[in-house]
């Protein structure tokens, strides 16, 4: 049944195509024949029209108002059923060979053939005459001062003359019948072979084992079938092996801390891990959402020069000596090792390795003790100074007591905030695994942070824009995630100035990460300080920072909290003023 059904479909499609082709040929030929006969008739009428025009001009019949002499043409024109009409440019009939009182005839300017002649020089039409009540084939031609219209009575003889010969139709129908019979038998053979090929492809598509039984007829297809089965089995085995190896490679790449990506010779990405795009964003001055953008960035000129040297040349690459490049890029006091290898097929690999982490950790540990001692010394000295002033000058007025005690309380609160921030930093760095992680709705949490600063933001006329979609969910510690956005907003309104705008934007995501930008307008950070703002206790203007009440640890907490969530953060100045933080948060 399936075989017959498929055969029927093929036969049906062939017949439909042939029928359409036949109809097109018949229509073309019929119209061609009909147009040819019409052209013959109009050519005859045109000759009569030209004879009439020549006769009128030669004898100046219109100027002498002697158009009745046109009757003399009846001796020259052999056809006895030709009607000649002379119409001036205003539509008045000056002569009609079939009407005696032609001067009484109605205006002819609106006659279809006259209207066509006005536009196209000549015009024709088949219609019934209003004057004689007979049907004519009209032919009108426009001359400088008048129209000459000739017409022939549209009788049976003329109708038959204009009809196309139909012998060609019967010839095409006969050919169609013969070809239909041939198609019936050909599609039968073709349908049988295609049905067997379909059965084979269904098994192959379902990854079912293909037996060595020959499903094709005992001919050349039988030989081909054995080869197809063997090739299919070999490809299936190879595909299964490659799938296993590919899964291993994916797992390995995602486990690496280095950014790594593979590209084709045309620089189309074939494979990459999440660190690759993140490292590009850290190095670049622009927000980059696609790994392919690396080839358009100035920071990677040396890499692109190396790649173009080999990819655009016709020189073959020896698999034993693959071209390689390795160099260091320094960006905002961060150091990245850029490596690339071009393979023999001119596909290539790029690795971006952040080599600053371990070095900075060592330096931070050395500086931590001295920084803590230095930062604790200031509030402690202030508290001690205020209390000594009270004791050394006792008794002192009550208002003075309140003043010095208030100052001491302020410094003690700053000291407590400092100790809390140091404790939080140490907990993140040394005991990050102890924080409880769960599902956190980032959009909801960001708005909670914003609401907690609502009064302060309104006081300074700060506008806040949050571009985080519903359903942006990460697995993390809610308290630490809250502190990330809290510290960024607090840092913005403390140092950005009044009337600034803060924008939080989730500008990109992939399978494993969300990528955010936190931008505030206002005051920018000098470039020489930009790379160090995430260091503990680092202040651009120590006096101003202490006046604003900062501990110098806010951005350090942000950075360490983001790293605990397997993300990265960087900062850069906005050309129009302000600063932008780019960071990522792991989804899982």
Q: Which keywords apply here?
A:
588 residues; alpha+beta; 5-stranded antiparallel sheet; 15 helices; 17 strands
3D architecture notes:
The protein is of the alpha+beta class and 588 residues long. The chain has a five-stranded antiparallel β-sheet. A five-stranded antiparallel β-sheet has the order 7-6-10-9-8, covered by helices on one side. The protein has a five-stranded mixed β-sheet with strand order 12-14-15-17-16, with helices on both faces. It is built from 15 helices and 17 strands. Helix content is 51%, strand content 19%.
Helix content percent band = 40-55%
Shape: elongated
Question: Biggest sheet, strands in spatial order?
Answer: 2-1-5-4-3
Judged by helices, strands and strand pairing, the structural class is alpha+beta
Low-pLDDT parts are none
- Main sheet record: 5 strands, antiparallel
> Overall mean pLDDT score?
81
**Number of distinct helices:** 15
Q: Give the termini distance in whole angstroms.
A: 54 Å
Oligomer: single chain
What is the total tally of β strands?
17
Radius of gyration equals: 47 Å
Strand content: 15-25%
Brief digest:
With 588 residues, the chain is α+β, with helices and mostly antiparallel strands. Helix content is 51%, strand content 19%. Strand 1 and strand 2 form a beta hairpin.
Layout: helices, strands, pairs:
Elements: H1 2-59, E1 82-88, E2 93-96, H2 112-120, E3 122-128, E4 135-142, E5 146-153, H3 156-162, H4 167-205, H5 220-255, E6 259-263, E7 269-272, H6 274-283, H7 301-311, E8 324-331, E9 334-342, E10 348-354, H8 357-392, H9 398-431, E11 438-441, H10 442-452, H11 454-459, E12 463-467, E13 473-476, H12 478-495, E14 501-509, E15 513-520, H13 527-530, H14 542-548, H15 554-564, E16 569-573, E17 579-586
Parallel strand pairs: 12-14
Antiparallel strand pairs: 1-2, 1-5, 3-4, 4-5, 6-7, 6-10, 8-9, 9-10, 11-13, 14-15, 15-17, 16-17
Helix pairs in contact: 1-4, 8-9, 9-15, 10-12, 12-15
């Amino acid at each position: 049944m399936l075989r017959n059904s498929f055969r029927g479909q093929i036969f049906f499609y062939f017949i439909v195509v042939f029928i359409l082709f036949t109809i097109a040929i018949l229509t073309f030929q019929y119209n061609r024949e009909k147009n040819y006969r019409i052209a013959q008739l109009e050519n005859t009428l045109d000759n009569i029209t030209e004879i009439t025009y020549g006769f009128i001009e030669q004898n100046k019949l219109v100027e002498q108002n002697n158009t009745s002499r046109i009757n003399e043409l009846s001796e020259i024109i052999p056809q006895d059923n030709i009607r000649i009409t002379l119409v001036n440019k205003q539509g008045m009939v000056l002569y009609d060979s079939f009407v005696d009182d032609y001067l009484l005839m109605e205006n002819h300017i609106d006659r279809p053939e006259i209207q066509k002649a006005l536009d196209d020089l000549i015009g024709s039409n088949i219609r019934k005459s209003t004057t004689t009540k007979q049907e004519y084939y009209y032919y009108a031609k426009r001359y400088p001062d008048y129209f000459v219209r000739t017409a022939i009575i549209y009788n049976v003889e003329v109708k038959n003359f204009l009809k196309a010969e139909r012998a060609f139709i019967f010839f095409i129908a006969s050919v169609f019948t013969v070809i239909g019979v041939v198609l019936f038998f050909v599609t039968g053979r073709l349908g049988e072979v295609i049905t067997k090929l379909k059965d084979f492809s269904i098994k192959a598509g379902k990854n079912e084992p293909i037996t060595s039984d020959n499903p094709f007829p005992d001919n050349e297809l039988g030989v081909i079938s054995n080869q197809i089965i063997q090739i299919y089995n070999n490809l299936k085995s190879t595909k299964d092996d490659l799938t296993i190896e590919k899964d291993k490679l994916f797992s390995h790449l995602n486990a690496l801390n280095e950014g790594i990506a593979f590209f084709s010779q045309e620089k189309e990405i074939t494979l990459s891990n999440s660190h690759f795009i993140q490292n590009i964003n850290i190095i670049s001055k622009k927000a980059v959402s696609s790994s392919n953008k690396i080839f358009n960035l100035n920071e990677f000129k040396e890499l692109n020069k190396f790649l173009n040297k080999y990819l655009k040349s016709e020189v073959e690459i020896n698999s034993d000596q693959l071209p390689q490049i390795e160099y260091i890029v320094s960006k905002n006091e961060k150091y990245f090792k850029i490596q690339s290898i071009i393979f023999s097929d001119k596909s290539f690999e790029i690795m971006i390795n952040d080599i600053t982490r371990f070095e900075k950790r060592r330096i931070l540990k050395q500086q931590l003790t001295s920084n803590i001692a230095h930062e604790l010394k200031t509030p402690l000295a202030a508290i001690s100074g205020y209390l000594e002033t009270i004791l050394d000058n006792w008794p002192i007025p009550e208002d003075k007591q309140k003043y010095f005690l208030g100052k001491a309380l302020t410094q003690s609160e700053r000291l407590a905030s400092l100790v809390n921030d140091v404790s939080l930093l140490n907990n993140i760095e040394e005991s990050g695994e102890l924080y409880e992680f769960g599902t956190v709705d980032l959009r909801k949490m960001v708005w909670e942070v914003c609401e907690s600063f609502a009064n302060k933001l309104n006081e300074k006329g700060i506008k806040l824009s949050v571009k985080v979609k519903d359903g942006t969910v990460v697995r993390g510690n809610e308290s630490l995630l809250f502190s990330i956005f809290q510290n960024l907003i607090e840092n913005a309104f403390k140092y950005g100035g009044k009337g600034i705008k803060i924008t939080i934007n989730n500008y990109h995501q992939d399978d494993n990460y969300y990528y955010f930008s936190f931008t505030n307008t206002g005051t920018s950070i000098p470039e020489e300080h930009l790379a160090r703002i995430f260091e503990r206790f680092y202040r651009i203007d120590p006096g101003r920072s202490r006046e604003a009440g900062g501990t110098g640890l806010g951005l350090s907490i942000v950075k360490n909290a983001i790293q605990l969530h397997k993300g990265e953060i960087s900062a850069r100045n906005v050309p129009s003023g302000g600063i932008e933080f780019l960071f990522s948060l792991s989804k899982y």
